[in-house]
Amino acid sequence: MRATMPAITPRSLATFTAALLVISFLASPVPSEPAGRVEGPAAQQATLRAPSFQVDPGWPTIPNNWVLGEVSSIAVDPRDHIWVLHRPASIPADRRANAAPPVLEFDAAGKLISSWGGPADGYDWPDREHGIYADDKGFIWIGGNGGWPKPTAAGRTDDMILKFTSGGKFVRQIGARGKSTGNADTANVHQPADLFVHSPTNELFVADGYGNQRVAVFDAETGRFKRSWGAFGNTPPAAMTANPPQSAPPGTEPPMQFGLVHAVKVSRDNIVYVADRTYRRLQTFTLEGKFLRQATLPGDTDVAPVPAGFAFSPDPKQQYLYVVDSGPMRVVIFDRATLTAIGSLGMRGAKPGDFDIVHHMAADSKGNLYTAEIVTNRRAQRFVLR
């Protein structure tokens, strides 16, 4: 377990927050511009200029007359193959016979390479697929949030993480269905939202955030629990309390604990990025869980921002941090060094390049972006760096 950090008080937080280098910008999409363009005059005032992207409307190719349900997550492996996770159970009953397998592997051109997944003997497949990650060793990690927001039968919550080979062979399960005892549990997660394997330390970072309110870290080889923390590096609350379906009203004073921890990623310079969907904030930490900074998404639209996912640009310094904003339906582009918002991508809509509801994202080695959409659009999209 990690050492106890000094307490952070609301007064000290207010002082710290006032010093943050986070600015808002005007990024209302221009209707006459094609979808997939980066908008925002503040992009011209920042140290970095926001990159530009163009949506690839024909990506990917779904064969066999397959139907996708809600596309909950997306990942890119070291070969630039794209891994899509969707929810077959969310497909209307009259079309479910044509459901694609839950895990789909595509090449960069959008051609299907492999497909697998679903319930089987030997492991607990999630009732509600949520997060996927492809690590540098060729393993695929999957988590789910079954039992949220609508409770399932007793003992049916998705309190586990699954590890597979890229061919779909089961390797390991961390936790077990319906077994979580809350934030202090070292054997189980509780409806995890996102996953990331930090290769230098071979550690699995988990946004353990639908049922719990923490970041949890496990040994990626053995599955052994190593440490966890809550907002500001505080010890997570002992009480087992489900997070609400909706984010807190705009202007709500954020508490000293996380709400729904929806995304986690680790940069090359060993900074852990965490998205708190409930309280509309980002926080950064050291690998050991020491709090570094807090930031918010720009509140420049009529819809309050909701941070939901991350990706980094592939350059050596990972200069750009991309953040899914599932409030106004866009991806916000940050100068990662300063946590300054410098542009955005997309808007709410059904056209290629629009979003509804954008949920998770990833980036490939060439800087192209990939997004996953749930509820309405139910698709994966590719945005080509220009």
**Which spans of ≥5 residues are poorly predicted at pLDDT below 50?**
1-45
Strand content: 25-35%
In CATH terms, the superfamily is: TolB, C-terminal domain
What would you report as the Rg, rounded to the nearest angstrom? 19 Å
Structural class: mainly beta
Your description of this structure?
The protein has one domain: TolB, C-terminal domain (Neuraminidase, 6 Propeller), CATH 2.120.10. Helices cover 2% and strands 35% of the residues. The N terminus is likely disordered. The chain is an all-beta fold and 386 residues long. The strands form six sheets. It has a five-stranded antiparallel beta sheet, with no helix packed on it. Strands 2-25-24-23 form a four-stranded antiparallel beta sheet, with no helix packed on it. It has a four-stranded antiparallel beta sheet with strand order 3-4-5-6, with no helix packed on it.
Brief characterization of the structure:
The chain is mainly beta. The chain contains one helix and 25 strands.
Pick out its properties:
Neuraminidase; 5-stranded antiparallel β-sheet; 4-stranded antiparallel β-sheet
